Amino acid sequence: MKISTDQISALNKKQEDSYNSELDFLRNKFAKRGIEVDEIIHKVADFQVAIPSWALGAGGTRFGRFSFGGEPASLEQKLDDIGVLHALTKTAGAVSLHIPWDIPSDVKAIKEVAKSHGISFDAMNSNTFQDQPNAKETYKFGSLSNTNAASRDYAIQHNKDVINIGKELGSKSLTVWLADGANFPGQNNFQTALNHTENSLKSIYKTMPEDWKMFIEYKPYEPNFYSTVIQDWGTSFMLSNACGERAYTLVDLGHHLPNTNIEQIVATLMLKGKLGGFHFNDSKYGDDDVTVGSIKPYALFLIFNELVYGMKNNPQNPDLSWMIDASHNTKDPLEDLLQSLEAILIAYTQALLVDQKALKNAQQENDVVKCQEILQDAYRTDVRPVLKAAREKSGAAVDPLQAYRQFGVRKDLIKERGTKTMATGL
Amino acid sequence: MKISTDQISALNKKQEDSYNSELDFLRNKFAKRGIEVDEIIHKVADFQVAIPSWALGAGGTRFGRFSFGGEPASLEQKLDDIGVLHALTKTAGAVSLHIPWDIPSDVKAIKEVAKSHGISFDAMNSNTFQDQPNAKETYKFGSLSNTNAASRDYAIQHNKDVINIGKELGSKSLTVWLADGANFPGQNNFQTALNHTENSLKSIYKTMPEDWKMFIEYKPYEPNFYSTVIQDWGTSFMLSNACGERAYTLVDLGHHLPNTNIEQIVATLMLKGKLGGFHFNDSKYGDDDVTVGSIKPYALFLIFNELVYGMKNNPQNPDLSWMIDASHNTKDPLEDLLQSLEAILIAYTQALLVDQKALKNAQQENDVVKCQEILQDAYRTDVRPVLKAAREKSGAAVDPLQAYRQFGVRKDLIKERGTKTMATGL
Amino acid sequence: MKISTDQISALNKKQEDSYNSELDFLRNKFAKRGIEVDEIIHKVADFQVAIPSWALGAGGTRFGRFSFGGEPASLEQKLDDIGVLHALTKTAGAVSLHIPWDIPSDVKAIKEVAKSHGISFDAMNSNTFQDQPNAKETYKFGSLSNTNAASRDYAIQHNKDVINIGKELGSKSLTVWLADGANFPGQNNFQTALNHTENSLKSIYKTMPEDWKMFIEYKPYEPNFYSTVIQDWGTSFMLSNACGERAYTLVDLGHHLPNTNIEQIVATLMLKGKLGGFHFNDSKYGDDDVTVGSIKPYALFLIFNELVYGMKNNPQNPDLSWMIDASHNTKDPLEDLLQSLEAILIAYTQALLVDQKALKNAQQENDVVKCQEILQDAYRTDVRPVLKAAREKSGAAVDPLQAYRQFGVRKDLIKERGTKTMATGL
Amino acid sequence: MKISTDQISALNKKQEDSYNSELDFLRNKFAKRGIEVDEIIHKVADFQVAIPSWALGAGGTRFGRFSFGGEPASLEQKLDDIGVLHALTKTAGAVSLHIPWDIPSDVKAIKEVAKSHGISFDAMNSNTFQDQPNAKETYKFGSLSNTNAASRDYAIQHNKDVINIGKELGSKSLTVWLADGANFPGQNNFQTALNHTENSLKSIYKTMPEDWKMFIEYKPYEPNFYSTVIQDWGTSFMLSNACGERAYTLVDLGHHLPNTNIEQIVATLMLKGKLGGFHFNDSKYGDDDVTVGSIKPYALFLIFNELVYGMKNNPQNPDLSWMIDASHNTKDPLEDLLQSLEAILIAYTQALLVDQKALKNAQQENDVVKCQEILQDAYRTDVRPVLKAAREKSGAAVDPLQAYRQFGVRKDLIKERGTKTMATGL
């Protein structure tokens, strides 16, 4: 299954509703404030989000999983799926692999497949939250924080192995998400667990190539239901500082307690030069991992407002690794990812439309009403014409979801792969 | 694996620390207020909690499952496990089955096994949240609320089948837990889904034998992450009223939004004669399903305070079906259940110690400080001697967990069943 | 301070950016789906939201209050302020009074003032959460639920007095918000408190004129921090049913536990014909009472989606009483209310744009992706041209906030009233 | 109003129920594990908690306040009230003052009054969340973080003034609680606000005497409802590190998002030597500020378990400043404080009973069940005899609340001060 440039440009031509008059309107409106829509189109066209290899199959909950036909059964097929997404959007030009689910048997061949789709290798993900068949040590009671040195060493070695695989593929970063924690009060000594974790991370950090970065993820709960060793950004930030300059915090939108002001965390980390990666999804209750922007799109915009601000004003912070980290329990995974990519670009575009100069003035004068008006004006703007223009410019489909359906992608995938394949993942 | 009465009484005799002097102290202290500890011992000895058949294996999360040796591989073995719990505690004299996980191949034989352990058949549980292999209809988009009539009918018929199996076994009630809901705004028409659910429940209700009760469970989220058709007690209560006199609400402790005052819900339902069943577990974040009393024991006590009050003052409410509904991700399931039973009896005993007369007076006088003192006095009392006395009286082990370890139960189970069996469940 | 029609139309003419080309675009786009934008303009122009008399002064928290100049010091001045809002928007044509804060000394004169502004008298609000100077009974430990009959009677009589004042003014409904509850476990007997409340409400209900409605508000916590007698919609619904046909539940957006699915509650109540009133505000943490739409605009849209659906499909439900219930701690109250009115109309318009036929089909086919697309398409539309058209049509300012600032309203109010007046309220 | 030692010892003698047999039982039980109850009695007798000067009057909410007779109208009277608490408990031997509410007119005289009650001066509290009459600058839009330099300077100077008052009185620490934040998205530039705050704090820090400590409090929301500059421990920790060695984080139990694992924060801060102060209260929903231990006593125990562990194992962490920070909306403030002191000592005692050696072993072996048993065994112990012994030992009333009522303290205070005095506070 591969979608050609010709197919897409043919489809784009048939696109009935032209977006050009709307776009002109936006151009004029924002030009008056010194905001150039064409520059924004350029930025939007450049924006790339990594797709994790585990997001291409049906997700599930502890209560079960409803399968979906045509799931990719191999790393090659996963790359093909991302290739479809990238062809349709020109925004999905990277993959984030998960080891051991995605150990390439033939590195060179895999790199070829990726290259043919225009896909690069973003952050590598290690897995120390599940025991693999024939594992010599168990992570049942923790990995990098385990009271048992053998389990810690086993988990450290796994992370080093992941780095090595990543080096071969051309990745430049490692994301460490630790499920370590406790289900019951008393189970862990918090201080011991934290010390073990710090030492384990330092040991992994030291073996990273000099051009690599480490991203330390945090999460308050699940799969542990009493405590998690790296429970919040403060803990991750402390550990990043302990590890060194190239260790950063990674923010996953779903990894927060109810009502957390995530955009403030983003702003703080960028100010301190310590925001390294970002995982997109959305949620109403916990780490629900539903489609980006499907529940709280304004919160997403506010977060992007800080990201855009930081990217412009915080040279101390590195370029960010963007990734979608969602679960597709009741949707076709590829359609879900297309909806997520759309929501990300909408929020990004709206954030780029914020009149930063006017905002700064209003903030300085404590004109709270005006501050709100400025943000809402950007947010209430229908920016879909900008996305369409950006996509047409970069050779993507003007309306990727419509194109996906029109091309009958899922039907073809089922024909190719059958209805019973099951992708590795959660 | 079966533990004999002799083994237990022999062990009880060896029990080093006598609890009798403590018990006498409690007897005297509370007698002054007209509270007879011996009556309480009697009530505690009588209290029976059903064990669900799916709680005897290791639980898990969507991130995985760490197996545990000696898990029961058949319904007989599950009953044997409950038999162990009941022998040790004399509190676990009932089982709650889950269909299709526990369809008995030989009803008579199963009833014999249960009888030999002194176990009765409590509420039957249907499963319309998972598709079984070769299922003719799918529940992916709902069961009793599905927009598709064929799926609704399939789910209705399944519930009727469950009733029929229950009738043969001697059960007298059906618990309906619906996962139905939506992951995304717009997916469901709330009103249609509610109407379908009401009609489906009525259809099931009508086929119940006249001495059966129906328990309608509610839950705000998971496995659906945007909406759940029966999201709260109000919805369940409305549906119970629509179905008829023998339909009741079932309260599961973990099925509430953060900070919900559950004890008030319990009091309201008992006042209205509509509390039918109760599922015990504990949680810090969501439906964590951890050991009863391990996180919020005071909340458990406050709930029992309302239950005890209702059992005494609300003849309009039926006897309650009690069940433990927890998941055992990192503990030996039987040890976890023993800890849960202990916590339940402690809370129950403390609630029985509340000086209701004094409380009523203090409430009438709005002496808020004294109201609190009265509850806290009961709660701060170490009631473990009462539990020990109740257990010794009924032939159970004075210290069940200690006995379980001393008898080497798990070791024997592993010897019998091996390390690779896996119980049905979540 | 009074703004004339001439002033407004003169300003509208000067409005630089015409919204007509955008409006045409919307007209064409939605006409293709059978959605007539001009009908929507008509509906939006008709929509009226009551302003509560207590929302015209600076709000505060328990930590204090920062005053604002030109606050209204009398009922007349409050009506004048609402007159300004209504002149600017033609959407604020009603006031909701709070007794005893707004007892009119001269009913006839007050009615004249209101009439001169085009303002009608919406629901009356009673206050049994504060003790007035020289009160004969105290509400410290509750009002309609008090263990003390004298306090209950006092609160019942107060509500009857409020009805009488409302009758004279032409109001047709009473809103009962009860703060009753407990700060500590044990303080209240839940069942007694609920019974007292039901009886008190029935007694008030019986004295209502036959063309009046009663709205029963619910709230989980604050000002009581352990329990609240009417804690959720289920309790309010139960009490409404007990009182009679003209008793309804009132939903205040801020009165829910974290993550509550409010739109589902709205749908359920409308299906059952029991949604009577609606209080608008927004919040991130609790009952924050901040500007409508300032935190979770998509949730507001989803709620309006259910309201619009119910208004069309649920003839069993009465017309709704709409009110803004917010607190203005750091903004000019009138500007805050203008922003709230804007956010309400935006969400209402977006909900009117939802392609209900397509949505119904997608729901029937369980095309979850398409369901989401349909809602998001409406939500992502920039509907501000529709609001502008509706306002111009009805003689309001095309851009009310801009007009408010241009007319220098606040400056004039301060000149008239000084900087030290303080409006009654929270 | 002053209670003499003789009065107390006379009352203790009349104490009907001797606690000695229970105490002996505890002594024996715990001696077997190498835990000496008499050492614990000693520690409990030594434990001192500061009473804040604002906790001696009735509290309230934004909805109002119900007054209480006999409230202290002056600093002297506040000290007298604390004197009563200290005489009854020998645990309340310190006061924490709030400026400008407690500026002493005659320092020497105030020190005499305090000395006569055995009360020392704990941390000083500044107030930059309210504007005082005739204030030259406003804190409406922030204090240490204000965009306006004049407001920042004004707030900095206020803190310096507070230090100066504290120096005269003999205090050795300053607690900074900042309400600074925003009610609406866009209102604040997060990075600017954080930078301003850091600079302001550094400026205050520099003027502190060398034997003083600074405690930086954090809070997620209220009185600001969108963002708070110091929103969590991570931000406070970062600021403490920026200020210097003698700047520490202060944990207030009520200042956390729902479900936060506070005990883990405590453990982390003590490990890093950065936990300086601790504010006790309890809550179910937000910063409810209700009586300590009245809602989640097990959480309090778990926190004390970490505190006890840290006090023993973390020499890098300084001695802690303990304070009760609660609001007394419906209780006699002194009775409420007596209940809080009791709850604190109970949790402390239970934590001291934890068998640390056994716990460490069980943790090392990942015996999760046993870890839980060890904590629960301590928690389920009725430790009130230990408190009684500790109090009798130190000359306090064995049962302080009973003594308070028996001595008719409130009646006397009303006689002395009348029913209309109103203490400064919230």
TrEMBL record, chains A, B, C, D:
It comes from Autumnicola psychrophila. This is Sugar isomerase. The keyword Manganese applies. Keywords: Isomerase, Manganese, Metal-binding. It comes from the Bacteria. PANTHER family: L-RHAMNOSE ISOMERASE. InterPro entries: L-rhamnose_isomerase, Xyl_isomerase-like_sf. One of its GO terms (molecular function) is isomerase activity. The keyword Membrane does not apply.
